[in-house]
Each structure stands twice: as structure tokens, then as C-alpha cells.
């Protein structure tokens, strides 16, 4: 069975997809055979060569890892119909339209199959980089728990929490996220990655030290605001934009090496092997 | 002698982050209280913004305060945003004091005692002036009050609540995730004195399914011993601009504000926003915080 690492966030758009893609690339450079995984995708879908579809994020992360995208990387595809209704595709099967209520009861039966998809990946790769959905503490959306801490606890994955400093309130988001988790869930969080920092690092350092003391977890690094790197889905898939993405993956991995404690992350993965 | 002075009541809107909807909530409160017959003025001590609201006499204040004055049905004055910073060269900002350019400020200034006490003096004077002229002041904070690395130099949030003796509504944004964590975390990072200033939470930009909303509210209320004073729905068409979004590249910055202003003129153009917020908030609790009758002066 492969090693695991999971990325969860303190808000939506904190940088989970971005950090997961960067880790996929970096671990591939380290010689691992890497697969991305995320329980669900609600964004743009990409058709797979063997039929079926995959969410853009995992497609792109597989590309970053130099691996071929397969449907197991994304067992649950949600096409939003409204705020409270989805069209659901589960492990390649179209389940039709569901209200949120129907979706919640469907999810309660789907966990084993989701884990089975992950197991297929774990048997075929050295490391699986698992991305969470939104945050692990959306109290009014309990259906998201399955894609975050329920899964992390089931597979005992070390979790890195990524947080967006650019919009302000970062310390509160981190402290509050940890405080809303149960103790066994808190223990799965191994460290925090601060994302989208711009400004003067010397002004931040004192705050980071205070934060480490408050949450009793290390800050693994501070990633700068990389607005020159875009991993948004292209309007049309072409060789040209794929080439551009390959350059972006190189820059991403480089940014991790320059700003994160990579040794710490590699040790997390090796412990898990 | 103090009791003989006529002094406005004050209430302050702070947020768990930038762009959580502080300005929109403050704008709505200005309109709500004004409709109830009170003389209301907005106040934001310190603003960092690229764009500003130009007044007839040439002075500049934050856009949101200009707009809030409109919502309150009054003429904006420079005292409503006495300190305005505009980004210039990297690490440099232009400081505007009461609407007019005062000088360039380097980033090291922000932590200097002389600079901070100068700023606090300006804030205190402008606020005192408004307080003599109005019945309610709706204050707006900037960013988050829980930036633990910048707490000493934060002259936009809790220090201002303190000098204004204003109860604080803490706004958290449900639309971007992490709102419960941010609300709880912010309160956890405040000092005991600051925490006592927080009157409750406003959970903003809610949409979707509300089945589990009551239980979520209960968790937050239990963990903080503070009430949630309202859940405000996501209001696409009246999503006004935040002023402190200098670095924000998101679509919500000024586009939607333009959309909100439409053709309508006058304070009535804020009525849809005010109605939605008034329906969502526990207004009796807010009037109780202000120590004013809910029926107003009409």
C-alpha cells in the first residue's frame, strides 16, 4: 500500500488544489510514483481516454505528477444544478439528479466504495496526495466531512492544513479550525502551510511563532503569492497550454523547495510507508 | 458635566477577514437607523484603499464611508474617515489626514509609537466631533481584529471600539468556507477586555440548504458564549465593495458596487440591502446595545 499525505484547508480557495499539484510534482521529482485523489469534484470535468470523466483539479494534478489520470482519482462528480441539487456521477455511473437531502443519504452508503477507489490507487502508486474539500469544519454542511476528516481518520493520513493569509484573519482561521475539530482529528494535522503571502516576512515571523505555540503544530512554510502561475482549466485543451502548464509545475515544485520544510514532508510520507 | 453633553450611541462592525461584508452591513445599518428617524453617521478610523470618494471640497475619504453617508441621508465629511492610506511605491503609502494628503509613510512607521499616537489623536478628535453632531455612529473596522503579529499597530479595530465605547458585531463570511472557524478563532485570539466588547456574530452571505444551520449556530454560541445576532443571505445584487481590498483581485471589488447603484439616486437605493439586513438581524438586540428605543424618533 502506498504512502499518503492529505491537504485540507481553512477556507475554500485557500490553495488546496494548488499545493496538492505542487506536492504531486515535487514527489514525482523525488522518484515516487504519485497519484492525486479527491473524494469529489464540482468543477469543470475533463473526459478520460478510456471513457468517463474526472474533475479538472485531479486531472491537472495527475499531469503534474506525470501520471495518467484515472477515474479512481475522483470517485464522485457533482454537477451543480442549484444550491441544493446536483447531478451525481459515482465511480463512472450516472446516478441522476439528487436533492441535497437525497445526496446526503446516498453519501452515507457510498463511503466504502470511495475507500475502495482510493485502495486501487494505493496498490498502484507509491504516494497518494489526497485533497480535502472546502474546510473540515463546515458545521452547516456535514456532508463534507466524508471528504475531509472522516476519510483522513479512516486511512490515518497525515494532514497539512493550508491557509490563505492574503485575505486577512489567517490566525483566527487556523486557530478556529483546530478548535472545532475533535481531538483525534486534531492529531491528524501535522502542520500548517501559509499561502499567498506578500509583504515583509520579518513582520510575520513573530505572529507565526505565536501561532505555533497556540496550536502546538509547526508552520511548514510560507508560500509567496504566485500570481504568475495559473492552473485554471483552459477553454480549449491544446498542446500549447499543456506545455505552459508543464512550466507552471516546475515553478510550483521550485516554490515548495524554496519555501517549505520539504524534509519534514518527506519524513511524513516515509513514516507512513 | 459629562451627562449634559449630547453624545451619540455607537455600534461597530468588524470582520473575521477582508471582504466578509463589513461595509455592506454598516451601510445597511446606516440606512436602517436613518429610516427609523435617527441622525446617523458612518465612521471608519483607518482605511487602506486605492480608490477614494471625492467630496465637493476636494477632500478624500474611503468609498464605503461616502456611500454609507449617502445611505444615512447625510453629507459626508472628512471626519467620517480621518485616516486614509493609499499604496504608492513598494513599502510606501500616502497618508491622507482628514481628507487631505499629509505625507508619505514607510512601512516601519506603522509600528512607531509617535506615528501611532498621532493617528489615535486624529481618530479621537474626528470621532468626538461626529459624536456631538449625530445620534448614532456606525463604525466599521478593517481587515480582522485578530492579526496577532500586528495587534499593537492596529488602529482600525479594537482600539477604536474601546475609545468609542462601541459594542462590536463580528461579521463572518459563510460563502467562502471556514466561517465558523474564523468566528470562533477571532474571539479566541482577542484579549479578555476586547472579547467583552464583542456583542455577537453576524454570519453573512449564507446560501444553500439551512437544515443544519441551527445546530451549527448552537455550536458557535456554546463555544464562545456569544449570540449569533443574525444570518444574512447572500445578496448578489447588493454586494457592496469593501474598502480595504487593495490587494484583492476577486470579482467582488468594485464591479458589483456599480451594479448595486443602478439608476437610483438617494438613500432609497440602499433600501433592498437595508430590508434584507433588517430582516436577518436581531434588531431589538441591536437597539438594546445602542440603548435607544426601537421605534426611533419618527
Residues in helices of chain A, as a percent range: 40-55%
Structural class of chain A: alpha/beta
Tally of individual domains of chain A? 1
Q: Tell me, rounded to a whole number, the average pLDDT of chain B.
A: 88
Round the mean pLDDT of chain A to the nearest integer and report it.
94
Beta-strand residue percentage of chain A: 15-25%
Explain what you see.
The complex is a heterodimer of chains A (273) and B (298). Chain A has 273 residues and is of the alpha/beta class. Chain A is built from 9 helices and 12 strands. In chain A, a hairpin with a 2-residue loop joins strand 6 and strand 7. The radius of gyration of chain A is 18 Å and the shape is globular. The model of chain A has no long low-confidence stretch (mean pLDDT 94). Chain B has a 6-stranded parallel β-sheet, sandwiched between helices. Chain B has a 4-stranded mixed β-sheet with strand order 3-6-7-8. Chain B starts with 8 loop residues before the first strand and ends in an 8-residue tail after the last helix. Chain B has 298 residues and is of the alpha/beta class. Chain B has 10 helices and 12 strands. The interface between A and B is large, with 43 and 43 residues.
Keywords:
heterodimer, A: 273 residues, alpha/beta, Rossmann fold, six-stranded parallel sheet, four-stranded mixed sheet, 9 helices, B: 298 residues
Which helices and strands appear, and what pairs or packs with what?
The complex is a heterodimer of chains A (273) and B (298).
Chain A: E1 3-9, H1 16-29, E2 34-38, E3 40-41, E4 45-47, E5 53-55, H2 56-65, E6 76-82, E7 85-90, E8 93-99, H3 100-124, E9 127-131, H4 149-155, E10 159-164, H5 170-180, H6 183-186, E11 189-197, H7 201-215, E12 219-224, H8 239-259, H9 262-272
Helix pairs in contact in A: 1-2, 1-8, 5-7
Chain B: E1 9-15, H1 22-35, E2 40-43, E3 46-48, E4 52-54, E5 60-62, H2 63-72, E6 83-87, E7 92-97, E8 100-106, H3 113-133, E9 136-140, H4 158-164, E10 168-173, H5 179-189, H6 192-197, E11 198-206, H7 213-224, E12 228-233, H8 255-261, H9 271-280, H10 283-290
Parallel strand pairs in B: 1-9, 1-10, 2-9, 3-6, 10-11, 11-12
Antiparallel strand pairs in B: 4-5, 6-7, 7-8
Amino acid at each position: 500500500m502506498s504512502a499518503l499525505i492529505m491537504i485540507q484547508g481553512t477556507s475554500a480557495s485557500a490553495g488546496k488544489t494548488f499545493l496538492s499539484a505542487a506536492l504531486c510534482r515535487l514527489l514525482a521529482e523525488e522518484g515516487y510514483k504519485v497519484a492525486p485523489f479527491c473524494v469529489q469534484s464540482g468543477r469543470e470535468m475533463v473526459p478520460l481516454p478510456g471513457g468517463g470523466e474526472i474533475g479538472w483539479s485531479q486531472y491537472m494534478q495527475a499531469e503534474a505528477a506525470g501520471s495518467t489520470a484515472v477515474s479512481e482519482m475522483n470517485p464522485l462528480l457533482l454537477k451543480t444544478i442549484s444550491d441544493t441539487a446536483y447531478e451525481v456521477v459515482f465511480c463512472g455511473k450516472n446516478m441522476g439528479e439528487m436533492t441535497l437531502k437525497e445526496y446526503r443519504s446516498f453519501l452515507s452508503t457510498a463511503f466504502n466504495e470511495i475507500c475502495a477507489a482510493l485502495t486501487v490507487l494505493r496498490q498502484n502508486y507509491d504516494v497518494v496526495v489526497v485533497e480535502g474539500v472546502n474546510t473540515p469544519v463546515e458545521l452547516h454542511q456535514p456532508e463534507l466531512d466524508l471528504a475531509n476528516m472522516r476519510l483522513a481518520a479512516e486511512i490515518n493520513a497525515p494532514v497539512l492544513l493550508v491557509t490563505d493569509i492574503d485575505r486577512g484573519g489567517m490566525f483566527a482561521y487556523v486557530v478556529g479550525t483546530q478548535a472545532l475539530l475533535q481531538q483525534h482529528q486534531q492529531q491528524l494535522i501535522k502542520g500548517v502551510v501559509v499561502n499567498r503571502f506578500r509583504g515583509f516576512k520579518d513582520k510575520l515571523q513573530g505572529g507565526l511563532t505565536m501561532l505555533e505555540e497556540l496550536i502546538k503544530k509547526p508552520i511548514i512554510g510560507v508560500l509567496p503569492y504566485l500570481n504568475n502561475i495559473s492552473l485554471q482549466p483552459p477553454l480549449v485543451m491544446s498542446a500549447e497550454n499543456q506545455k505552459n502548464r508543464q512550466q507552471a509545475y516546475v515553478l510550483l515544485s521550485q516554490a515548495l523547495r524554496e519555501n517549505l520544510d520539504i524534509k519534514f514532508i518527506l519524513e511524513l510520507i516515509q513514516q507512513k510507508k | 458635566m459629562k451627562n449634559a453633553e449630547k453624545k451619540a450611541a455607537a455600534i461597530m462592525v468588524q470582520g473575521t477577514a477582508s471582504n466578509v461584508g463589513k461595509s455592506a452591513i454598516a451601510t445597511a445599518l446606516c440606512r436602517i437607523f436613518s429610516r427609523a428617524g435617527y441622525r446617523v453617521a458612518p465612521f471608519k478610523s483607518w482605511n487602506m484603499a486605492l480608490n477614494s470618494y471625492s467630496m465637493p471640497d476636494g477632500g478624500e475619504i474611503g468609498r464605503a464611508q461616502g456611500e454609507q453617508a449617502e445611505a444615512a441621508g447625510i453629507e459626508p465629511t472628512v471626519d467620517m474617515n480621518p485616516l486614509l492610506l493609499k499604496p504608492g511605491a513598494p513599502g510606501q503609502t500616502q497618508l491622507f489626514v482628514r481628507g487631505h494628503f499629509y505625507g508619505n509613510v514607510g512601512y516601519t512607521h506603522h509600528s512607531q509609537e509617535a506615528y501611532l499616537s498621532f493617528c489615535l489623536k486624529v481618530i479621537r478628535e474626528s470621532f468626538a466631533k461626529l459624536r456631538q453632531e449625530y445620534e448614532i455612529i456606525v463604525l466599521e473596522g478593517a481587515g480582522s481584529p485578530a492579526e496577532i503579529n500586528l495587534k499593537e499597530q492596529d488602529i482600525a479595530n479594537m482600539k477604536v471600539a474601546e475609545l468609542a465605547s462601541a459594542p462590536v458585531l463580528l461579521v463572518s463570511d459563510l460563502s467562502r468556507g471556514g466561517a465558523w472557524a474564523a468566528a470562533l478563532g477571532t474571539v479566541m485570539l482577542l484579549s479578555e477586555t476586547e472579547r467583552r466588547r464583542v456583542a455577537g456574530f453576524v454570519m453573512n452571505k449564507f446560501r444553500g440548504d439551512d437544515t443544519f444551520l441551527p445546530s451549527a449556530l448552537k455550536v458557535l454560541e456554546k463555544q464562545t458564549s456569544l449570540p449569533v445576532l443574525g444570518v444574512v443571505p447572500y445578496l448578489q445584487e447588493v454586494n457592496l465593495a469593501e474598502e480595504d481590498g487593495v490587494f484583492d483581485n476577486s470579482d467582488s471589488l468594485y464591479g458589483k458596487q456599480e451594479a448595486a447603484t443602478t439608476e437610483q439616486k438617494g438613500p432609497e437605493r440602499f433600501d433592498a440591502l437595508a430590508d434584507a439586513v433588517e430582516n436577518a438581524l436581531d434588531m431589538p438586540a441591536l437597539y438594546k446595545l445602542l440603548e435607544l428605543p426601537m421605534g426611533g424618533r419618527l
